[in-house]
Structures are given as structure tokens and as C-alpha cells.
Records
---
Amino acid sequence: MQSLIDIQQQLLPDLLVVMKKRYLILRQVMLSDMIGRRTLAASLNLTERVLRAETDFLKGQGLLLIDAAGMRISDAGRRLLENMEPLYKTMFGLSDLEERIRERFGLKGVSIVPGDSDTSPYTKRELGRAGCAALRKVMGKDDVVAVTGGSTLANLAGQMMTQAPLKSNWFVPARGGLGESLDYQANTIASTLAKRTGAQYRLLHVPDHLSDEAYMSLMQEPNVREIVEVIRSARIVVHGIGDAMVMARRRRVDESVIQAMEAEKALAEAFGYYFDRNGEVVHKMSTAGLRLEDIVETEVVIAIAGGRSKGEAIAAVMRFGHDDMLVTDEAAALEIAAIMDRE
Amino acid sequence: MQSLIDIQQQLLPDLLVVMKKRYLILRQVMLSDMIGRRTLAASLNLTERVLRAETDFLKGQGLLLIDAAGMRISDAGRRLLENMEPLYKTMFGLSDLEERIRERFGLKGVSIVPGDSDTSPYTKRELGRAGCAALRKVMGKDDVVAVTGGSTLANLAGQMMTQAPLKSNWFVPARGGLGESLDYQANTIASTLAKRTGAQYRLLHVPDHLSDEAYMSLMQEPNVREIVEVIRSARIVVHGIGDAMVMARRRRVDESVIQAMEAEKALAEAFGYYFDRNGEVVHKMSTAGLRLEDIVETEVVIAIAGGRSKGEAIAAVMRFGHDDMLVTDEAAALEIAAIMDRE
DNA sequence: TGCAAGCGGGACGTTATTGGTCCAATGTAA
DNA sequence: TTACATTGGACCAATAACGTCCCGCTTGCA
């Protein structure tokens, strides 16, 4: 059955949204015995007109009875609700989870794909696809999109598709180069995204990890300075989330710094910064890319990360509180929910 | 899984239509390796613009690759098609069958619900619902709808719903009263339908089975005459289909006539007439209701009947050739298809 | 190498659909 | 009877869908 839903999701992505809306209307009506349109619209957060279109439809389907006194559920509607009961969890379980997490961290949107990226490459791919969808949704015209590196972002970039070319948009790396494999460099990802969407891109040919002096002198270079300004003006940022220690080592951060971070219980890494479990930044360093103050200013910040092992790190970064959207997977989301419950 | 589809059918009735359209596009593209929009539109009987909207969508979903050379399927699309293969039959098998039957008998539309009305009351209910949908689709303003009697029609009437009241429409019985139970009388059904849809109705208080003399004298009555004229002017006729012998006995047709019909191999009964397997009428009698010549003139004739045992009778009436729509169930449809294959 | 057929995609005007808002008619309960 | 809440109709604005035409590009054939 899951496979059927997966297929339908690909062929009719907003199927579940519509189904859920209608299900909830029906359910609310049943719980209310008899209820009026306005009351119902208010309790479901729908405008009166939209609700009316839906109730007219449900009436036509014979699931709802409407008369001058109000609406109540029909026998067929009651039967349908009963039959849907067992399906509800599998069909909408994730969107409930999405809503809980969205609410808790004050996000604009949360998107959860089924599965666990740690164990299933398929889930990882889905995660990328969901990331694409989230990004597509917020991109407009003339937007600058800054992206970080990492395997998840690389996965996203490799799957990105658009209906029409986005000529007027720019993709830029959020940070400079790291010691990682080429495929996972922010530069590579920005360029892949631009190529796949028909957008433009700029690269930042500067190491991410800089001494203050090197930073100052590099920023004197007009061409470096120029692209850095573009990066810092990004309206949209898409970033991954990593484990603090793993990332620090991969970035060859000084052993002394690593130990300091360990002492401060650094847990998560995102766009080059390290966070403890409360979302406090525990280590800063000068960077030619996006700085914390830029992130705070950015209009849309999208985090994308999945896998049970990353749940804690994701929760930490969410506590930092400057993300607007989270794209994750079921395993990580359950982990996050568990952390929320423990609070 | 079937239950999921059933539920979705109620909450999103045209889900399958859209899914099938997209599936067929994808499939056609795969079979064609590389194909252009216009060619594809022609081979799928879609207008160019509609197809374009769909292919843009499929491209956005990453299922289709489009470049200046044409369209081809992506890996994800190919995977999707493979995954759908087993689902196709359960999801669309009936609509293929619908199309075959529609084509063979030159109908405007065929609607098949899953199951067998002979054995499952649930299927019988579904049949009624499908009949409602078919009827709703063809009803406009100021229409006169003539309905016959029978349990299937009664079932339909009991489930009929409309979004808005159809004040300007009239429901009338197609034929006079029979010896049957009150619930199954055409009069009862016309009145139920009118009440449930907010339409008007007229009754025909005349026995269906009349001697020529009685017929002539009854037709002198102004009020009988008036309603009979309304009936005969019906734009829409909805009728059931029965087994000839069963119906004849139920109607207490003279034993001599029954034997004559048996000799002529009467097989099916519909709107008071008896048909042999070739759709030829084998017995006529004067009636105050709809006559054959009225049926021939009627703009929309809808047949509704299901159950494996009725397959043969349905096929016979379809051969008569004046129906426009058929609403039936899977068991009967398969029986009809088997008869078609034997031809 | 040149040509023509077929391709995607842009553009535009028209039509159909959807959503917001207001109000009249109606039924219900106090 | 009155006051309230209900549905359903009406209307307008915004938007999406659609039909149609054309342009520039690629590609395969001559």
C-alpha cells in the first residue's frame, strides 16, 4: 500500500493535501454532530468560501447532509471515516509530525519524507527530491540562492528540475572550499544547480577556513570582494546539518579548537558554525562566506538533513532559531519529536 | 489496497482519471524512446496545450526529460512505470473494459464498478452510486427524466444526491404500475428521486399491462393523457435491465404469450420490451408509458444493471442499440466482454 | 554542407474556475 | 414572537487553464 501512495505522490503530489483537508472536514463535522459553515471554517482555519466548495463537493458525494439547520455527517460519510481510520496514520502521520515540529520551532514549513537516510539510499534520494520541491516553492525571480556543501545538498542538486529555466536567478556557494571531495563542495553544488535549472552561478575560490590576516587581505581583492557581497546578499540559503565533531575533523580544524569545542559540548554544524544542544554558537571563525549576521538577515533559510543519527544535531540547529524551513526524513523527525517530548 | 482506492474514489473522484492520463503519457514516451509534443498529443488524443501542461508537470517531477530534440523518459520515470505495472490492472483494468464495451456498442459512456451485484450488496450500492453520477452528469435545466422500476433503480434513487436543488427538472415513471412491491414501482422511484434532488415529479396511475381497448379508453382521460405526453417527451431515460422470463412472470404476462416469447428466445427485458440475444424486439404490447418509438427519439438513454447473471441480458439490450450510457458492474462487464469475444 | 521537418518554448487573448464578500431567505430555539 | 445562526444565491475580481500561433533551434537526411 505504501508503494501505491508513493506512486500517487509522484503522479499527483498534492493528493494527500486535498484528501487530508476533506477528511478533516468530515471528521470535524462528525465530532460536532451538527455544525454551521462559519463555525466549521473557523475551527479548520479555512476561509468560508473554500470550505463551502468542499462541503458542496462532499454533499454531492453523499458524505455530508446539509440543510437549513446546518451540516451533519451522512451514514456513508461515517462509514468512510471508519474505513479511513487505519489509513490515517500511514497517510497523514508524517504531516502531523511536520506540524508539531513546525510549531515547536516556529518554522514556516516542515517537510518529512518516509524512511531513514542513514540506512536507505532511497530515502536519501527522496530527501533530495523534497528539498528540490521546497526550494522550488520559494524561488522567485532575480533571487540569489546560497548553498552549502555536503552529500545531502549534492543529492538535492543532482535531482533538481524546473519546469521553465530560471534565467534570472543566481546560485552561489555559501562558504569557501573545504578539504572534502569535489562533488560535495559548495562550489560544485551551486554550479550543478545552476546548470540543471538554467540559472546563473558564481564561484568563490577561497578556502573556507581562514586566519584573520588572510581574510583581511583576501577581502581586498576586488573580484573576491564582489562575489562575497553577492553571497551575503542572498535572499535564500539552503544548508545541510552535520555532526559537530565529524565536521570539525573533516575541516581539519586545529586540535586545540576541537578540544575547546568538545568542552563546550558542540553538537551540530551548519553553514560553518558549531552549535551546542541549546542552539548556542560555540565556535566562530572569520569566513569569506556567509556570516551568522547574514543568516539572521536572510529571508528564507532552508535546512535539509536526514537520518536518525542527525536528529539531535537538527534539533540543536533548529533551536538556533533562524531557519524557516526544514526538510528531513521520518527517522530524524521521530528523533526530534522524542527530544521535544523530553523537554 | 482496493479499500484505499475506494476511499480515494470517494474523496477525489477524478483521481484515477488524472493518474491514468499521466501514466499513459509517460508510457507512450517510454515506448517512443524520443518523441515530440505534437506527435504525442495526436497519439494520445489530447490537445497540444493540455499535453504541454502535463509534460511540464512531469518534467518538474523529474519523470520526463525534455530538450530541443524532444522528450524522453528519465530513470525515475522508468522506475515509476515499472512500479506501476502491477497496479495498472487493478487501477485501470475497469476503465479499459469500459472503453472496449463503449466502443463495441457505440455508446457515449460506460461506467463499471468493481464487484458482482449478484453476490455483494456493497457492489449493488456502488452500482447505484455510479448510476447517480451518470445521471447527474447528463441532467441540465428543465429536463424531464423518465425512470423505470426495479431494485437497481430503487437503489439508485435511494442514494441520489445533488449539490444544488434541481427545481426545474421533472422525474416521471417511464411505465405504469406493475404487480411488484411498492418500493420498486417506477412511480415510487420517480417520486424518491424528485424528493432527494429537490425536483418535481408526476405520477402515472395506470397499470402497465393494458388491453388495446383499455388503453384507448384511458388515453381519452385528459389527466392521463397529459402526463403520458410529458413522459413521452422525456429527454433522459434511465432504465434497468432484467431477465425476460423472470420479468414476464413477475408481470403476470399471459402464459400463452410467455410461451410465444420462449419460442422466440426472448432473453432480456428493458422498459417493458422483450429482446432476443440479437437485440431484436420479440414482444410488444400497447403501453401508456414510453413506447419503443419514444426511446429511439430520446436524447439520453441510460441503462443500469449489474451482476454476472445479467451479463447476457445487458449485451442483448445493448445490441438493440438505442442506449447512450451503460452503468454496470465488473462481473456483468466481464460476461459482456466474453460474449463479445465469442462473436 | 545545406535544407527541411520536427522540436520545445514563448506569447497572447479568451474562457473557465476559484475565491472573497455580502445579503436575503429560512429555520430553530429560547 | 424575536433573535440568532444557518444555508445558498449573487456578484466581482483574480487567477488558472486552454487554444492558437509563431519563433528559433536541433537533427537527420539528401
---
Amino acid sequence: MHDIKIIRENPEAFDAGLIRRGAEALSSELLALDEKSRKIQTDLQALQARRNEASKAIGAAKGKGDEEGAAALMAEVAEIKEKMPQLEEEDHQIKDELNNLMAALPNLPLDDVPTGEGEEENVELERWGDPRIFSFEARDHADLGPELGLDFETGAAMSGARFTFMRGAMARLNRAIGQFMLDQQTVKNGYSECAVPYLVRDHSLFGTGQLPKFAEDSFQTTEGHWLIPTAEVSLTNSVREQILSEDQFPIRLTALTPCFRSEAGSAGRDTKGLIRQHQFEKVEMVSITTPEQSAHEHERMTKAAEGILQALNLPYRKMLLCTGDMGATARKTYDLEVWLPGQGLYREISSCSNCGDYQARRMNTRYKREGEKHTIFAHTLNGSGLAVGRTLVAIIENYQQEDGSITIPDALLPYMGGITKIEQSS
RNA sequence: GGACAGGUGGCAGAGUGGUCGAAUGCAGCGGUCUUGAAAACCGCCGAGGGUGCAAGCUCUCCGUGGGUUCGAAUCCCACCCUGUCCGCCA
């Protein structure tokens, strides 16, 4: 959500930002509605003020037993009230229209975000780790997995495409990854562990920006709840409608949850393997902080995500997303892409975004600064730390052996109950 | 799922048709007193919007949305949420 006052002050900059994101300039339309709305509001308020005044006078007159005076005033109010419903109706209508337009707009990119249309124009910032040199031909996880307990067929049989059933040591490895990451983010990086609802209401998805525009990307129950597409929704909405105080910041929250995505519009993409599922687990990080601190917090959060890849010794690169590849709620996003030797490419495994006050405005999350009267919208950030399923993919491909088995990264051994290797029979 | 109770400012909690944006207490802020602190005392203290250079004037908000009324926190309707008890259940 945007601040209409900022649009009023600098409509050119606002439009330029929208255009950079591939959206259409909208300021003149918004400002026309805004002006109309303010005009109506002023007119309406003049009537309301007179009505309020007269009503009070009626009360006073009746109190004194002046029935005649009261009757005269009542006649005046009746007249005022004839004009009001029409203005009220117009007022509602225009405000709705304005709100609907505003609610559907994406966030504006920060200045240092490169302009571009799609992922080809993302900028690689750095690489970490040297891809392993294989003495044999590296296979991809969809090829290796079925022998090792990644049962795509059984998953598909009960639930359809994009669902996987995991067995034995592979299921355990999946669990170990989640536990390990959660421990890293809490103990090492200071995020507070949360266990959160997986079903949320409309207003929560609106708050984090999935609604109204991206309804088709999420699943909804027959009761009307939405299945969270990411724990970002549950964690970020924990501060909705709150006025916080500055000394609570930064609020750092994390949770390991399943994520549910309909993947509408992804037909035919990544149909093989674990890369794109309707259900996957993810450790999510969320920070709530001040406008002054959010850029720094963004760097810190990205490092927290990188720490996992480094601990698992998985080569990756850090990308700065261009305007066309960022999610709608973000002002700036870093993606971490892990090296997948079986596929011979880097693949997104984490996305860390600074949303500025975009979500806070939608959720009405504000804070007070010491000594200041007015409230300020907080800044929100979110990042994966990391996606469990894709980490599993990366481990399978990077830790594969010539015989088709995989070894367990050292960092995960404490979570594996003595298992050091996953091989065919397990 | 059934029955009942209830949703009021940061928190607690009064208010059942008029001068109520709302008593009181706590917390917070400023001050007096004190070497300093505590206590006591005094004062301030909800959010958002319109208009204006400003001072100010004004509007909206007592869960949400409608309605009744000259006038609604207060009455009516619907919905959402919370609590308690009962039922069922991991």
C-alpha cells in the first residue's frame, strides 16, 4: 500500500517507479480520485458539523423545556439530512475505488535496484564456494531420488502432480535439514522461534500483500481460510494492528512450516523432481524494524541465510533482483541461488526482501519513537533461511557418490541419529 | 457442534439515548520536593483524516458492516472474534 500524500507530493517519481516495475503510470488517475474524494469530504463535513451543532442545541432546548425551539431545529436538521445520503454514497464509492486501485499496486523499487524485465537482468553480486569436480557424470536429484526414498510416484498417486512421499533416511534428512536451520536461525542469528497457524484469514493475506491480486496462487479451504504460502504471512501478521515502541526493535521471528502453493501459471515448469511442489517446508525469517534500520537488517538477514549454505558447504551465488523479477511487495530483494551439479545451474533457494512500509501500511503496524507524538509505519523484511525441499535437492546433487548414494553433510550429522550415508536399500 | 457471557484508549475498567472521544486506576511523560532515588503532590497523556502559511477550526473512529433516531459507545439486524460451561476429539 502506498501513501497518497507521497503520491501527491511527487507524482512523477511515483509513476517512474511503477514504470520501472513494468506497471502503468497511475498517479493522475489516483490524484483525480483523491481530489474528488477530498472535495466531497469537505462538503460532507460542513453538513455534519451543522447537524452535530443543531442536534446538541436540540438536546439543550429540550432540557430547558423549549419544545418550540427544538421543533424548529429538528426541521433544520431534517433538511440537512436530505442532502447527506447522496454525498455519503459518493464518498464511499470514490474511497472504495481509490482503495481498490491502491491495494493492487506493487511496491516501488529502491534506487539501487536494477531496472529489468525478467531474471536475465538480475545482477550477480558474488559467488561463494567452488563447485565440486566430479570424476563421474553428476546426476540430478529427480534421477537419484527414487532409489533413495524420494517417492514421487506414491505422492502423485494419492495427491497428484507436485506432491512427494518421502521414506526412511530421506524423510529423516528432510527433517534434519529443517531442524538444523531452525537451530541456526534461533541460536546463532537471534531469531525468536515461533510455531504459527498454517490457516489464516483474508485480512492476513491482504496484510502481507498476497491478496487481492494473487489469490489464485494460494489454496483456500471450504471454510474460507487460506493455507499459508509461506510463514512470512503468519510471522509478519503477528504485529498487525499494533502500535509498537521503538525499543522493541528489531523484532526477529522465525518458524519452520509447510508452505502451500497452487502453482497456477507454472504449468509445465519444473514438473520433474522436488523443485516446485504444492507443499514444501521452509524456515522463514521475518524482521520488523525502523525505516533507518531496515537496509542494514536486510543485509544481516541475507547473511543469516547465506550462513546455512556455508555451513552445509553448498556453493551459491548472491543475486540482486531487477525490478521485473521482484515480488510485488518488495522494495529490494536478494536471491541466493545454490549450485545444482546434476542440472548444471544455479537455482533459487532463498529470497530475502525488504518490504519497507508496504506491508505495515496494509496491516496498520506502527510504532512510536521516544518523545514524538505521531506514529510511524514500521518496516518489514522477510527471507527464507532456507527452503527445506530445495536444500534437500542441493544436498542430494552436491553430495552424490558414484554408486548413487549420498553422504550427509557434517553439519547435519548431529540430527541424523548415526546415519552418515543414504543408499539404495535404505 | 450446543448454551451463556462479552468485545470501550498502551493495559485494567466505568459508562444503557443528549454537554461522552469517553469516568477512574495502572503504566508513560513533564514538574515540585530531595544531595540522588523512592514516596507524596501538581500537570499532561488515544488514533486517523479534511482545511489553513500558521494559530486554529472541523470530521471520523467505543470489534466490523448495515439500520432506527433530530441525536447512538448506549437501541435493532448481520457478521467476525474472545471467554466460560457442555458435547466430541489429537
